[in-house]
């Protein structure tokens, strides 16, 4: 019974994953829309593959073809591939690579060399070119692996695809499939997007979408204007055995016929060399004029490739080893300074918008001066964004080789919001505005903090209400809240008679409160809820607290020198004392 339930669960899971992939594929291939980030897509597909491998009884064999069949758009004629054109299975770590290697090893012929042909995995779209006696006969997309869309007219507009192969000392085969990747150079991508922008047309979110949209065009003239590029990566079907070459030699062969190939390709003689190639690829990707999202590892021996064969979905002799912690590069256009509740000033880099992990990133926090110095960031620098956990990507490094016309990041001397003095906190390595409630940037957040659940706990007084009250200059300091009446709040957006009355009731209720709530609510830097309780417990009433000394504070268990300094400094400021006495003047009853 138990087992049966689990089976149903797994089956549902597999079906749901398939549905998701199908929906994404359909949007991606037919409408050129990426609904999810590449990483999300890859990891979902990986999860599905793993489940299907483990629970093969649920694997409906007609399925894999069925889902991709929908990926063919009706606007193109279909062309049948001479040999299947499967996509590659993706892996993400060295352990997966070892597994792949073990499987290959099991199938080794006696004294067969374990070489791998390693190539950069260009992020474009696959194309199948059929040459008959050296003349381009047809070009098609991958489609469902069995047949693709006829894009011959468009392929003829791609300069790097030869219409006629170059003669060498080997005669041309009667029929050969040459496979490769069509992509768009990043420099071209930027140029075209700039042009589209000037015409107020919709921009492409990434180079691959642009390449795909440009190749799969009814109008070949558009393909021509987009100046697509092409690299060959292998041979599919060929009618004569004498053209059966090992992968690395096959690349040399097609290159001698005038097919451009990517020049970083390496023949790796050990797994260690594959690993080195992978690491090298991560380093060079920033300098390439095209996007790569990993490397392709192919068993070099043709004989062994044939022996390994294919599963229902993937060839067993090749694998796509993807970059796991994806990096994206962009430029720092400037730096803004945000002021937080406690006055901390956070430098935020304004970035040249970049599509990353499924969203467009425009800003990235630089945290503090220390981090800026450590990374050596300057305005106009080209920087790399790196995925950090599941949250917002962070700037991980500067590409110093690309440094040009840089400017130093200069921190303001006075607060840009309230002109108060800016001080440096040595321990936290950050700058903060000393304005407190006087600072417009801090006021809203301080007041929100003051009414929050653990502080004065005024129910119904949310951010929206506070923002309006501040904008209308009805409140400025905490004590102003207790001077509110229904007449002053009934006109606010989202308020009615009933809700106004309720809010006033809540405000009145909160006037009888506890000491720790007030200490916490006035927002002393570095004083959280537990420290506030600790202090309230010790001082018993507000005037004892106001008149305390540093030594007295230090004598309290759990309060260190840093916190003591923060409190003492806060209490030294007359403005803060008047905020507290104003609260007492509006009859705040502190228990
Ligand atoms: Zn300020």
Separation of the first and last Cα atoms? 60 Å
Assign the CATH topology of the largest domain. Answer: D-amino Acid Aminotransferase, Chain A, domain 1
Radius of gyration over all CA atoms, rounded: 33 Å
Report the uncertain regions. Answer: 64-72
CATH superfamily of the largest domain: DNA ligase/mRNA capping enzyme
Q: Helical content, roughly?
A: 25-40%
Q: What is the architecture of the largest domain at the second tier of CATH?
A: 2-Layer Sandwich
Strand content bin: 15-25%
How many strands?
Answer: 20
Bound small molecules, deduplicated? zinc ion
CATH class of the largest domain: Alpha Beta
Outline, from the CA principal axes?
elongated
Count of helix runs: 23
Pfam family, one: HHH_2
InterPro entries: DisA/LigA_HHH, DNA_ligase, DNA_ligase_AS, DNA_ligase_CS, DNAligase_adenylation, DNAligase_N, NA-bd_OB-fold, NAD_DNA_ligase_OB
Protein name: DNA ligase
Family: Belongs to the NAD-dependent DNA ligase family. LigA subfamily.
Task: Describe this entry's structure for a reader.
This is DNA ligase. Zn(2+) binds at residues 415, 418, 433, 439. NAD(+) binds at residues 38-42, 87-88, 119, 142, 181, 298, 322. With 591 residues, the protein is of the alpha+beta class. The protein has four domains: 2-69, Helix Hairpins; 78-322, D-amino Acid Aminotransferase, Chain A, domain 1 (2-Layer Sandwich); 326-402, Nucleic acid-binding proteins (OB fold (Dihydrolipoamide Acetyltransferase, E2P), Beta Barrel), CATH 2.40.50.140; 422-590, Orthogonal Bundle (DNA polymerase, domain 1), CATH 1.10.150. Helix content is 39%, strand content 21%. The protein is built from 23 helices and 20 strands. Strands 12, 13, 14, 15, 16, 17 and 18 form a seven-stranded antiparallel beta sheet that branches. Strand 4 (125-132) and strand 5 form a beta hairpin. The two termini are 60 Å apart. Mean pLDDT is 87; it is low at 64-72. The structure holds zinc ion (ZN). The site of zinc ion has 9 residues, from loops.
């Amino acid at each position: 019974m138990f087992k049966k339930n689990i089976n149903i669960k797994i089956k549902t899971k597999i079906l749901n994953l398939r549905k998701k992939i199908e929906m994404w594929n359909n949007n991606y291939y037919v409408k050129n829309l990426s609904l999810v980030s590449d990483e999300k897509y890859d990891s979902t597909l990986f999860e599905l593959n793993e489940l299907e491998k483990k629970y093969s009884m649920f694997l409906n064999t007609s399925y894999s073809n069925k889902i991709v069949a929908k990926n063919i758009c009706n606007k193109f004629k279909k062309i049948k591939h001479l040999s299947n054109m499967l996509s590659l299975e993706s892996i993400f770590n060295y352990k997966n690579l070892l597994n792949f290697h073990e499987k290959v090893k099991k199938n080794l012929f006696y004294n067969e060399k374990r070489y791998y042909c390693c190539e950069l995995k260009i992020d474009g779209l696959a194309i199948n070119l059929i040459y008959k006696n050296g003349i381009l006969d047809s070009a098609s997309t991958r489609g469902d692996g069995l047949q693709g869309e006829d894009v011959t007219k468009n392929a003829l507009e791609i300069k790097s695809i030869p219409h006629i192969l170059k003669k060498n000392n080997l005669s041309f085969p009667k029929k050969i499939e040459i496979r490769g990747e069509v992509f768009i150079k990043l420099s071209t991508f930027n140029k075209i997007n700039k042009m589209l922008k000037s015409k107020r047309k919709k921009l492409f979110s990434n180079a691959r979408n642009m390449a795909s949209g440009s190749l799969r065009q009814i109008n070949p003239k558009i393909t021509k204007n987009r100046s697509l590029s092409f690299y060959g990566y292998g041979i599919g079907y060929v009618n004569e055995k004498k053209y059966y070459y090992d992968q690395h030699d096959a690349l040399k062969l097609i290159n001698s016929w005038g097919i451009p190939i990517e020049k970083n390709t390496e023949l790796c003689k050990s797994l260690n060399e594959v690993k080195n190639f992978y690491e090298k690829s991560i380093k060079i990707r920033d300098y390439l004029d095209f996007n790569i999202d990993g490397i392709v590892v192919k068993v070099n021996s043709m004989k062994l490739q044939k022996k390994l064969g294919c599963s229902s979905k993937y060839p067993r002799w090749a694998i796509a080893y993807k970059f796991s912690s994806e990096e994206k590069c962009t430029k720092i256009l400037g730096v803004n300074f945000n002021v937080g509740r406690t006055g901390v000033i956070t430098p935020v880099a304004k970035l040249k918008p970049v599509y990353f992990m499924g969203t467009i990133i425009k800003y990235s926090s630089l945290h503090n001066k220390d981090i800026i110095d450590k990374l050596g960031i300057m305005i106009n620098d080209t920087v790399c964004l790196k995925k950090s956990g599941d949250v917002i990507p962070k700037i991980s490094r500067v590409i110093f080789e690309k440094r040009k016309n840089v400017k130093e990041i200069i921190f303001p001397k006075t607060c840009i919001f309230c002109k108060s003095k800016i001080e440096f906190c040595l321990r936290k390595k950050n700058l903060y505005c000393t304005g407190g409630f006087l600072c417009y940037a801090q006021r809203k957040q301080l007041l929100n903090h003051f009414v929050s659940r653990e502080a004065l706990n005024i129910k119904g007084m949310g951010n929206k209400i506070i923002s309006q009250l501040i904008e209308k200059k009805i409140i400025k300091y905490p004590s102003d809240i207790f001077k509110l009446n229904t007449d002053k709040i009934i006109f606010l957006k989202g308020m009615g008679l009933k809700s106004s009355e309720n809010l006033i009731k809540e405000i009145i209720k909160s006037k009888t409160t506890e000491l720790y709530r007030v200490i916490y609510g006035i927002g002393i830097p570095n004083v959280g809820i537990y420290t506030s309780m600790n202090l309230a417990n010790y001082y018993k009433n507000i005037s004892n607290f106001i008149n305390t000394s540093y030594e007295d504070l230090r004598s309290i268990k759990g309060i260190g020198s840093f916190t003591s300094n923060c409190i003492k400094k806060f209490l030294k400021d007359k403005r803060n004392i008047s905020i507290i006495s104003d609260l007492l003047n509006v009859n705040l009853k502190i228990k």
